[in-house]
Amino acid sequence: MAPDDELRPASLVGNPCMFTGRRLDTETGLYYYRARCQDPICGRSMQTDLIVNPVRRGEPVESLGGRAHDPEKAVRIAHGVILGACAAVLGFSALLQAGDSRVELFGWPCPMKCFVHSVFGVRCAFCGMTRSFVLLAHGRLAEAVRQHPLGPAMFGYVVLQALYRAAALLGAGGRAMSRIGLLGWIAGAAVLAAILVHWLAYLGGLWI
C-alpha cells in the first residue's frame, strides 16, 4: 500500500514480507498465512479457518467442518451432567437402607465391597461413605458420622452442587454465580483434602 492509498503488487525495495509481516506471493497476488492465504484486494482469506475459536457474545465463527463451536452449550451440558450425577447419588441414598456392615435396596443386600479392603485388608479413604450418605438421607446424623466422620461434609457438598447446577441451568449468572462456582471448587478441594488426611491418620494408627 502506497502513501496515496494505491495498492502496489510488490515492494519497491524488494522486500518479500509485506502486510503484517507475511510473505506476498507475486505470482498469485496472495499473502501466505501458513495455514491459509489472504486476498489483499477483498481483504478475506481464501480458506476456512481450521482452528475452532470461542464464540463471543453469540457471534458465529468459522470452524472445522462448518460447525460453530458453542462453549456456552458445552457449559450447559457440563452443568446437566453434574446435576444428574448429584441427583442420582441423593436419590439412591434415599432409596437404600443402611445397616452396620451393608446397604440394602428394598430388603435386598447390595453387593458393595471395597476393592482395597478386600485385597489389602485396610479401609480405603471412602470406606463407609456410602452408608454415611444413606443414613444422612434418612436423617440419622450420629450414625452417619460413625460410619465416616466426613460423610456429612461430603453429603452437604453434593447437595450444594446440585442446587448450584440447577440454578445455573435455570439461567442464573453474573459475578455472584462465578464467585459461588469458585467457592465450590475450593470447598470440594478442602473436603477431599480432609478425607485424605483422615485416611492417612487411619493408616498411621495401623502402622504405629
Structure explained in plain terms:
- The protein has 208 residues and is of the alpha+beta class.
- The chain has 2 domains: 1-50, no CATH class; 71-207, no CATH class.
- 48% of the residues lie in helices and 10% in strands.
- The protein has helices spanning 71-95, 115-120, 129-137, 141-147, 151-169, 175-207; strands at 23-25, 30-33, 36-39, 44-45, 96-98, 103-105, 108-109.
- It has a 4-stranded antiparallel β-sheet, with no helix packed on it. Strands 5-6-7 form a 3-stranded antiparallel β-sheet.
- Helix 1 (71-95) packs across helix 5 (151-169), helix 3 (129-137) packs across helix 5 (151-169) and helix 5 runs antiparallel to helix 6.
- The longest helix has 33 residues, at 175-207.
- The relative contact order is 0.07.
- The model is unreliable at 55-66 (pLDDT under 50).
What's the layout of helices and strands?
Blueprint: E1 23-25, E2 30-33, E3 36-39, E4 44-45, H1 71-95, E5 96-98, E6 103-105, E7 108-109, H2 115-120, H3 129-137, H4 141-147, H5 151-169, H6 175-207
Antiparallel strand pairs: 1-2, 2-3, 3-4, 5-6, 6-7
Helix pairs in contact: 1-3, 1-5, 3-4, 3-5, 5-6
CA gyration radius, whole angstroms: 30 Å
β content, as a range?
5-15%
Strand arrangement across the biggest beta sheet: 1-2-3-4
Oligomeric assembly:
single chain
Largest sheet: 4 strands, antiparallel
Classification by helices and strands: alpha+beta
Give the low-pLDDT segments. 55-66
Keywords:
elongated; 208 residues; alpha+beta; 3-stranded antiparallel β-sheet
In short:
The chain has 208 residues and is α+β, with helices and mostly antiparallel strands. It has helices at 71-95, 115-120, 129-137, 141-147, 151-169, 175-207, and strands spanning 23-25, 30-33, 36-39, 44-45, 96-98, 103-105, 108-109.
